[in-house]
Sequence to fold (354 residues):
Amino acid sequence: MRHAADHTISRRAALSVTASAALVGPGVLAARAAEDEDAAQHVPGAPISNFGEHSTAEEVTDGLDLTGKRVLITGCNSGLGLESMRVLAMRGAHILGAGRTKDKADAAFKALRAAGLKGGSFTPLACELSDFGSVAACAEEVAAMGEPLDVLMCNASIMALQTLEQVNGIERHFVVNHLGHFVLINRLIETVKAAPQGRVVVLSSLGYKWAPEGGIEFDNLSGARGYDPNKMYGQSKMANHLTVVELAKRLRGTTTTANSVHPGVINTNLGRHFPWYVHVLAKLIGWTFMKSVEEGAATQTYVATAPALAETSGLYFADCNPVVPERPEMTDEALAAKLWDVSEELTKPYLASV
Ligand SMILES: NC(=O)c1ccc[n+]([C@@H]2O[C@H](COP(=O)([O-])OP(=O)(O)OC[C@H]3O[C@@H](n4cnc5c(N)ncnc54)[C@H](OP(=O)(O)O)[C@@H]3O)[C@@H](O)[C@H]2O)c1
Fold:
């Protein structure tokens, strides 16, 4: 296991370089994100693991036999989804890998096999999250298999679209990152509940801090009244966690859990829409605060599989441990309930039941 002390310069010193070098935007925000991780507050009473910032997905699942477990991962062809798929398959799981197209998902798993992945098995799925018809069809395909789903990992995402894009009048980050997954959860929750101890794991982000005041701008879901890429990403990531808050409440009294994850700051394709200078900064100094992909996938694979978390629900995890989010909106149950209702309204024709 690697430790923070392995770095040859102090993380805080590097962060101040980052902060002064980057003018605005994701460079600074990423630096702040890493800095904020240092100040994370653990949740009283919740299980604490021995894993941390530099644990890898392989380490946190070491010794687990996931044979017979079925795990659906959205965005399985890239970054943290791909690494989660690799490691959970390596532990014996059957992966239902969702990409925008079946071919994309299939190619990703075949590439892992070609690179030496042993164990596990795989079914490719098409799930284009900006097309709720595609999401519903994906869920139907999974439900029709007639097998319980042990883990639903809502991992796919977009970030930092530099100009406003809408899908049917709604801003695209909110549609892809939140509403698409909202439909998927709605259509598959009974399949997850059919598992002995089903888990919904939703990728949030410390970027929730960039969400607008109040958390969700219900009167600007179109983005037309003002668009800022980081704010919109932050709003969608706050929505990811608020979904978990309301879902966990609805799942009380069942064996099914729902938790969200901040994976850390990792140089994946997520940054593809960043301005050029952020890419330059990431190349130059990203190593000082970024996790590797192997480390980045640790928290979500831990939350998806750790036996210690069988009864832990409704929490936000970072560095393989539950932490208290710093903004009060993240734990606002009334806001979570309102978001749920609004999301139902916006996706109604595609939901299993309302
Ligand atoms: N990387 C970080 O620093 C970081 C930090 C905090 C949180 N996170 C969260 O971690 C999760 C994984 O991110 P990552 O870093 O692994 O990003 P990534 O490498 O860019 O992977 C994102 C995945 O989402 C898929 N996707 C994007 N738009 C989609 C759509 N409309 N429909 C279906 N799938 C779509 C992508 O498919 P294509 O390849 O086909 O586009 C890709 O498979 C995200 O939820 C992200 O918000 C990441």
Notes: The radius of gyration is 19 Å. Residues 1-29, 31-35 have pLDDT under 50 and may be disordered. The longest strand covers residues 94-99.
